Amino acid sequence: MTFSVIIPCYNHAHFLDECLASLIGQSFTDWEAIIVNDGSIDNTIEVANKWCNIDARIKLFSISNCGLSSARNKGIELSTGEFISLLDADDKYASNHLESISKLFHGNVDIVFTGYSYFSANPSINHKVTLNVETDFHQILYHNIAPPVAVAFNRNLLLQSGNFDTSLKSAEDWDLWIRFYKVGAILAISEESSCFYRISENSMSRQFITMYEALKQVSMQACTIDCRISLDYSLNKRIDTNINDTIKRHLFLCLGVAIVQKKQSLAIDLFNKEAENFNFIFNYSDFKLLCSHLSFRYQVSRKDIDWVFNILYPLFSNFIDNINIKGLDKTILMKEIFSVHKKKKVKNTWGLLSPLINRISCN
Question: Do 197 and 254 belong to one domain?
Answer without folding.
Answer: no
